[in-house]
Amino acid sequence: MDRKMSEHSTIKPPTSTQSHWLAINIAENEAAIWSVEDISVYAQRVTGDWMLARAASESIPIEQVARKITWLPINLDWKRWALEHEAPEVRFCPAFPDRPLVVKTRIPVIVPPKTTVELYVNLPIWLEVSVSQGSKYYTLDTIAPTTLSNTWYGTHFEGQLCYALKSRPRRSLEDLSEEPLRAVCLFKIRNSSKVSLPVEKIRIDPAHLSLYQSNRRLWTNCVTVTFKGDEEHSEIDYDDSAPRDLDEPTLIRESDRPSSKGSIIDRLLFRSENPE
Amino acid sequence: MTNILAAAIDAESTLETIISRNNWDIALRLSVLLFIGFPACFILSKVVGRISRKKLGAHIGILIQKILLYGGIVAVTITLLLELGFNLGALLGAAGIMSVAVGFASQTSLSNIISGVFLYGEKPFAVDDIIRVGDKVGVVLSIDLLSVKLRQFNNEFVRIPNETMIKTEVTNVTKFPIRRVEVDVGVAYHSDIDHVTHVLKEVADKNPYSLDDPAPIVVFKDFGDSSLNFMLGAWCERTQFLDLKNSLMRDIKKKFDAEAIEIPFPQRVVHINRDHPNVGEEPNS
C-alpha cells in the first residue's frame, strides 16, 4: 500500500514533558505510526473510519515518537471502528493494566514493629488509543506492549486474578531503570502492630492510581499500607496528589476510582501459600 | 368414585344454570380467572424469579419461581373449580383415597423430591457450575425437585434424577476459582532429569495462562516400563483450563524437540541366549 500524504495531516510536536503521549491529525486515507520501545501502532483513516494495527517496533529515531507514513506493511492484523462523526485526531495516552498488579520481593523484607519503609515499584504502562468525538474522547483500543503473567492473589478458595510483575521493588529510586512504558509507584508500608511484618508480595490496584509526568518519567500517586496485625484488616491509602519532591509534575491521567484517606480496607496476604 | 361422580353432576348442573340463566356475572369471573389468573401466575413467577435470581442467586431464584408458578396454578384452578360449582370436599375425599394408591406408585418420584430437598440444602453445586456425574460432564442448567438438568459440551441434554445425584459421587469442577492442569509426560531413560525438570518448569513459566502464584510444579513420578515419567502441574483461572492445557501440551512438544529430549515409544529389550540348545532351530522342526 503506497499513498501520498496530503498537506492536512499534522502531528502535534511533542512537548518536553509529554514526549511519548501526543495527538496526531490524520487526513482521510492517510496513515501514521506511533512507536515506543517494542511496540508500534499503525493508525489510518479510511472513508471516515479508523483502523488500528500493532506490530513489532519500527526502527524510527528515538526523538521521533510518531510520524506520517506513505506505506503500510502487509499482513498487519487490522481492527476497524465505524464512527458516526468525523474524527481526524487520534490520541495516544498512557493507561494502566486492567487488573491489579502483584509485585514480589526477591527475598522477604521484614518490617519491624512501629516502622515505616518505602519501596519503589516500576509499574507497566499500556497504551490507550482514542479519537475525539465532540467534546469527549472515544477509546478505540487499549494495547498491552508486553504480555504480563497471570497470578493469583488469595487462597485456593477465594481471591483475585492479577498480573505478576517480573521487576522487583527497590528501596532506592536510583535502582529503578528509567523506561518510557513504566511508571514509578512509591509504596509505603507502615507497620503499626507489635509484631514484625515479613513482606513477600504487594498488590497494587491501578484503578485508584493517577499518572503524573515529571521530566521524562511517569509517576503514580503514593500508596500507603498500614498493617495493624494479623487479626485486623489493613488500611490502604491512595494519595490524591503527585508524590512530593517531584519536579513540576503534570497530571496526565486521573484515577478511575478516586479514594479518600483510609477508605479502602483489605485483607493483605503478605505470605505466599504453599501449593499442594 | 361416587364422590367424584357427585361432584361432576353438581358441576354439570351449575354450568347448565350459568348458561340457562344468562348469568353473566359468573361467566365474567370465570373468564377473568382463565384469561388473567393463569397468565398472571406466569408473569408474576417470572418477575419474582428474576429478582430473586439477582438477589439470592440462580439456585434459590429458580426454586422460588417454580413454587410461585405451581402454587399459583393450583390456587387459580381450585378457585375456578369452586366457581364452577365443584364440591371440593367430595373431590378432596376422593383424592385422599387415590393418594394412597398414587403414593405406592410414586415411590421413586417421592424419593427424588426428598433428594432434591437435600440437594437444595447441601448446595454441592449451583446453576452454571460444571459438574461430573459418572461419565457425564456438563453445565448445570437447572436444579429441580425431581432432577438436575445438564448441558454437555457436545450440546446434549442430560436429565439426572435427584436420587442418583445423592447416591453418586459428584465432582464440581468449577467450585473454586483456580484449577490445576496436570500433564503427564514420559522421557527416554538416557535423559538428564534436572534438564527435563528445568525445561518443563520453563514451559509453564512462559505460558501466559499459567499462574505465577501458586507456582507450577514438576514431579518426577516414577520409573515407567519405557520412560521416566514426569508430571507438570500448572495453575490457571478456572475459565482458562482448556487454553492452558492445549498450549502446555503444544509447548512441551516443541520445547522437547528443540532441546532434543526424546519422548519414547513403548519398547521391550529382548535378550537372545545364544548358548541355549534350541537357538537357531525352526520352531516346528
What does this structure look like?
The complex is a heterodimer of chains A (276) and B (285). With 276 residues, chain A is mainly beta. Helix content of chain A is 0%, strand content 49%. The N and C termini of chain A lie far apart (55 Å). The N terminus and C terminus of chain A are likely disordered. Chain B has a five-stranded antiparallel beta sheet. In chain B, strands 6-8-7 form a three-stranded antiparallel beta sheet, with helices on one face. In chain B, a hairpin with a 3-residue loop joins strand 2 and strand 3. In chain B, helix 7 crosses helix 8. The mean pLDDT of chain B is 85.
Distance between the termini of chain A: 55 Å
Please estimate the helix content of chain B: 40-55%
Distance between the termini of chain B: 90 Å
Uncertain residue ranges of chain B: none
Number of helices of chain B: 8
Major pleated sheet of chain A: 8 strands, mixed
Number of strands of chain B: 8
Portion in strands of chain B? 15-25%
Briefly summarize what is shown.
The complex is a heterodimer of chains A (276) and B (285). By secondary structure, chain A is mainly β. Helices cover 0% and strands 49% of the residues of chain A.
Keywords:
heterodimer, A: 276 residues, mainly beta, 8-stranded mixed β-sheet, 5-stranded antiparallel β-sheet, 0% helix, 49% strand, disordered N terminus, disordered C terminus, B: 285 residues, alpha+beta, 3-stranded antiparallel β-sheet, 8 helices, 19% strand
